[in-house]
């Protein structure tokens, strides 16, 4: 059986006992790596003052080699904070207004991809299967091919692929498209993303479907499909069911004094629609003055990418929205929005999901959104809460028991909050059961298995067709 080589920007390292860190993706990929042994390569998290850092750390544990490469400060600024997070992330989330394109940062992005390729090649064995993750590393396959690598290489995009009109705004659009075509398999979160990608190929005359599941792109065959990522459904359900004794969850419950809890959990990112969600909650309070003191929104939002200016600005905006609502509607006994930037442990998170009568998930655009799935998996089967879900989250294509909203429509979201809070038990159970059945059969292990099975089906030596 082939070894698996995984490459991602960051590498979730196991603890001293070899347990993978919490998080569905880390657990599933670790399980796949352990099966036949393998390598997980990525950035070490360290940046140095050297122009070309040589630091490469290798840790061996349980048949897995973790290979961690240092980057220079310039690499980090240009590749990660620059091109990946200030160009690709906003454009792929349909925020052309936030894209800050600089030629130097683009050069840094391609330079780091070359560095990853240089470091990876000496470690590869002929029948290794390589799985590259996410938008930081799109050009990696092409760089590996240029170095003579003929192994099967797959790519999974965790974020959305936007319609052609949006993505053509990317100054290196063709290079990025060619970079993706260098893979044997390209995986997206949803059919919608896949259709958008094929639409891009068609519009420029670069490619189209040749046979089902296979694209002919830039004179080469590439398999493409949707692989919606799942969560550790069973683990979440078990964690949530046994949180009764967790102090934080109990304290939270007591402090609510019987008011209904609505929960939002997001990395503090402009794609998550947090400010619009707060506005919608305020609109709900204004339309339902009798509910004052009876409903509380808990918004958990750990800081993220604080080196990127657009994130700092958005943090200030969310804080001011929360302050405004609490100032206008709060009383000495009741704070309508509890806003925390602290990161919580998974058991606490699962307990809070279960405590909440409503999961409010309102991204403006999201590849999948795991929080929506975790909220559902954490519910009490006998008395489940209601998921309110943005139609612009990838998860909306699977979780058909949610109340769907358009996050730009504040009135609609406010109405959905009212509907969710008053939904009868039998309807809540019926909606939840449908979603839970799906999450049980499509968990993160299913996702990992399905992607790797498809990659293993790619014909041998498909990559030999790429020379440039
Ligand atoms: C990208 C795509 C896609 C959050 N706060 C805490 C905490 N979290 C965990 C959640 C969830 C994860 O972070 C966030 O996952 P999302 O899916 O919502 O979002 P991104 O980080 O943007 O991820 C996304 C995903 O990749 C996977 O493919 O779904 O669309 O953007 O698991 O639980 N976890 C803990 N404490 C917190 O305070 N323990």
Automatic annotation (TrEMBL):
Q: Which Gene3D superfamilies match?
A: Glycogen Phosphorylase B
Please give the pathway this protein is involved in: Glycan biosynthesis; trehalose biosynthesis
Q: Which InterPro entries match?
A: Glyco_trans_20 (IPR001830), Trehalose_OtsA (IPR012766)
Supply the EC number(s): 2.4.1.15
Which key words are in the record?
A: Glycosyltransferase, Transferase
Q: Which reaction does it catalyse?
A: D-glucose 6-phosphate + UDP-alpha-D-glucose = alpha,alpha-trehalose 6-phosphate + UDP + H(+)
Membrane spanning segments where?
none
Say yes or no: keyword Glycosyltransferase present.
yes
The UniProt record lists the keyword RNA-binding? no
Give one Pfam family, short name only.
Answer: Glyco_transf_20
Q: Which family does it belong to?
A: Belongs to the glycosyltransferase 20 family.
Assembly and partners?
Homotetramer.
UniProt function note: Probably involved in the osmoprotection via the biosynthesis of trehalose. Catalyzes the transfer of glucose from UDP-alpha-D-glucose (UDP-Glc) to D-glucose 6-phosphate (Glc-6-P) to form trehalose-6-phosphate. Acts with retention of the anomeric configuration of the UDP-sugar donor.
Protein's name according to its UniProt entry? Trehalose-6-phosphate synthase
Organism expressing this protein natively? Cereibacter johrii
């Amino acid at each position: 059986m082939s070894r698996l080589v995984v490459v991602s920007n960051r590498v979730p390292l196991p603890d001293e006992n070899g347990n993978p860190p919490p998080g569905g993706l880390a657990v599933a990929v670790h399980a796949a790596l352990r099966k036949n042994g393998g390598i997980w390569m990525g950035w070490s998290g360290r940046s140095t003052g050297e122009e070309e850092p040589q630091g490469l750390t290798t840790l061996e544990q349980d048949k897995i080699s973790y290979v961690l490469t240092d980057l220079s400060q310039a690499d980090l600024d240009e590749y990660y904070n620059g091109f990946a997070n200030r160009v690709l992330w906003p454009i792929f989330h349909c925020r052309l207004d936030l894209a800050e394109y600089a030629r130097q940062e683009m050069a840094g992005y391609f330079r780091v991809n070359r560095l990853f390729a240089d470091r990876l090649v000496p470690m590869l064995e002929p029948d290794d299967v390589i799985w590259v993750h996410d938008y930081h590393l799109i050009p990696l396959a092409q760089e590996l091919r240029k170095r003579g690598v003929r192994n099967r290489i797959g790519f999974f995009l965790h974020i959305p692929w936007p319609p052609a009109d949006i993505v053509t705004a990317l100054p290196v659009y063709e290079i990025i498209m060619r970079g993706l075509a260098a893979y044997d398999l390209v995986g997206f979160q949803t059919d919608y993303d896949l259709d958008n990608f094929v639409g891009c190929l068609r519009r420029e005359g670069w490619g189209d479907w040749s046979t089902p599941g296979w694209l002919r792109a830039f004179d080469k065959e590439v398999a493409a499909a949707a692989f919606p990522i799942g969560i550790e459904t069973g683990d979440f359900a078990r964690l949530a069911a046994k949180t009764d004794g967790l102090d934080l969850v109990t304290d939270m419950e007591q402090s609510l004094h019987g008011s209904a809890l609505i929960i939002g959990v997001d990395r503090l990112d402009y794609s998550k629609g947090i400010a619009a969600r707060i506005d919608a909650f305020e609109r709900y309070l204004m339309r339902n003055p009798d509910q004052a003191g009876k409903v509380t929104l808990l918004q958990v939002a750990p800081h993220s990418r604080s080196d990127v200016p657009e994130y700092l600005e958005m943090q200030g905006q969310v804080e001011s929205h929360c302050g405004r609502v609490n100032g206008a509607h709060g009383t000495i006994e009741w704070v309508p929005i509890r806003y925390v930037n602290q990161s919580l442990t998974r058991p606490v998170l699962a307990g809070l999901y279960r405590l909440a009568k409503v999961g409010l998930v309102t991204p403006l655009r999201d590849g999948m959104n795991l929080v929506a799935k975790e909220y559902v998996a954490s519910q009490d089967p006998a008395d489940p809460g209601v998921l309110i879900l943005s139609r612009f989250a990838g998860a909306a294509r699977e979780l058909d028991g949610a109340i769907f909203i358009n996050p730009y429509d504040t009135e609609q979201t406010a109405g959905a909050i009212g509907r969710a809070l008053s939904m009868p038990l039998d309807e809540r159970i019926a909606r939840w059961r449908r979603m839970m059945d799906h999450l049980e059969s499509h968990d993160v292990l299913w996702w990992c298995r399905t992607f790797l099975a498809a990659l293993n089906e790619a014909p041998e030596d498909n990559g030999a067709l790429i020379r440039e």
